[in-house]
Amino acid sequence: MEEANQSVVSEFIFLGLCDSWDLQAFLLVAFSSLYLITILGNVFIVLLVIADLHLHSPMYFLLANLSFSDLCFSSVTTPKLITDFLKENKTISFRGCMCQMFFGHFFGGGEMVLLVMMAYDRYVAICKPLHYSSIMNTKMCIQLVTTSWIIGFVHSISQLAIITQLPFCGPRKLDSFFCDIPLVIKLVCMDTYILEVLTNANSGVLATICFILLLISYSYILLTVCHQSKGGASKALSTCTAHITVVMLFFGPCIFIYLCPLSITWVDKFLAVFYGIITPLLNPVIYTLRNKEIRNAIKRL
């Protein structure tokens, strides 16, 4: 027993979403369908923005990058979740677990910053329309997107660099369907209280700062919209409503998971499913249904 406790963990075991095979069969079909729609929807938006010259503007350049980010983010955990429904023993290698955590936080952190960049784009367009073309030029757009990816990378690698150096010697069961830092760090063979606080603060602070910046940006935008003409205000408000909806859906579960002191397993699992599977699906739906220019571009196909 003592020797087993000192052995190095080479894989982790997922307990999954549920134990019922009937429910797992239903979830297999449901999540496979949702994932397929997510992939097709986000790929469609990226290709539409590239192909339609009317959409070659900063807002749609950022939207295409958001769809690409959603495409990648949903692919970090969902394929593994779907295939695990077919298995009795749901395992993942140590390296596979580390990769899930890295890419999950890389794409997730990058998307948070990208949403802030999209809010900045709307701020310039609505609050400084005369300077929009000079401020939001091609160089600025590329810099904004590059900044979001760099922040996402730094956020992710800074946490993973610590995690990979910690001793994992058992237990190796994760009461979830994917690897995430708050779950994995509990399996470390040492006192992890300070590490848990630091890693949760890392993700929580990034999410909170981005969320506050978004609230400030959209509050300022809405105040400006109130003083515009009725037609211009209506169009601006429609665009901002779609952005705000995406922001609430993305940041709500994230902030709850990393900043809430309580840990309720079924709630965490539900939020993880919503955050990792439902939100990447809703983004293209929200932007497609609420955006007149996207709908017109689809009609031109």
From TrEMBL:
Residues 41-287 form the G-protein coupled receptors family 1 profile domain. Signal peptide: none annotated. It is a multi-pass membrane protein. It comes from the Eukaryota. Keywords: Cell membrane, G-protein coupled receptor, Membrane, Olfaction, Receptor, Sensory transduction, Transducer, Transmembrane, Transmembrane helix. It is found in: Cell membrane; Membrane. GO terms for cellular component: plasma membrane. The chain crosses the membrane at residues 25-50, 62-82, 102-120, 141-163, 205-223, 244-264, 270-289. InterPro entries: GPCR_Rhodpsn (IPR000276), GPCR_Rhodpsn_7TM (IPR017452), Olfact_rcpt (IPR000725), Olfactory_Receptors (IPR050427). One of its GO terms (molecular function) is olfactory receptor activity. It holds the Pfam family 7tm_4. Belongs to the G-protein coupled receptor 1 family. Putative odorant or sperm cell receptor. PANTHER family: OLFACTORY RECEPTOR. This is Olfactory receptor.
